[in-house]
Amino acid sequence: MNILETRGIYFDYKGLEVLFDISLQVEKGERHAVIGPNGAGKTTLFNVIIGGLIPSRGKVIFKEHDITHATPHELFRHGIGRSFQLTSTFARQTAFQNIRSVVLSRRGIRFNMWRRVDNLGDITNETDEILKKLNLFNERNFPASALSYGKNRSLEFGMAIASDPDLIMLDEPTAGMSRDETHDAVNLIRNLSEGKTMVIIEHDMDVVFSLADRITVLHHGEILATGAPEDIKNNQQVRDAYLGETEV
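The chain above was modelled as a monomer; its predicted structure follows.
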């Protein structure tokens, strides 16, 4: 069963066509990677799916509902969690406060002067459990701005999964990381996305082949190939367009 589909998506930017007839199917429970060279349209497609851009033609279907014109806030409430290529944590808030804000939002709880959220024990417990899974419990009271780049990315991923989404959207989650940070991030993503549906935009082929059940390759705004990792590795068109002749 497909949880997410794009049907004939076109997108143009000031008259320049960026996406051409993108029809993508993501099955429930799979990790689906979208790859391609710079300028292939990966991030544009990501932003169309999460409501940041409206396609010039086509539809985005999520859980059999047309979400083409839904806002990012509406998509959050429908069950789509996301992280971006650039870190989007709240720099002045602690790691604990960043995660807690998502947990509160998911539960529909707002802070007001008559209720101190610090006294909501179940919220605190759930937030701390997420921080432990992220290996950030020892930094729970550190502001996000004081965390290393890799830990900040982990925090952002934690914010994406704290909403308990049906679909996790990740845009280049390992961008800018060292080799060790990337290794840790892959393990974290694999563990926390177990049993969930995930779409990941990623340039690092080691990351892609470590995580993905299926891969879609974009080239010049069109789908060049979709298949299992081994099929993509052995696809000569993909090698010519993106992977090159080196061993992958």
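Residues 76 and 165 are 8 Å apart (CA to CA).
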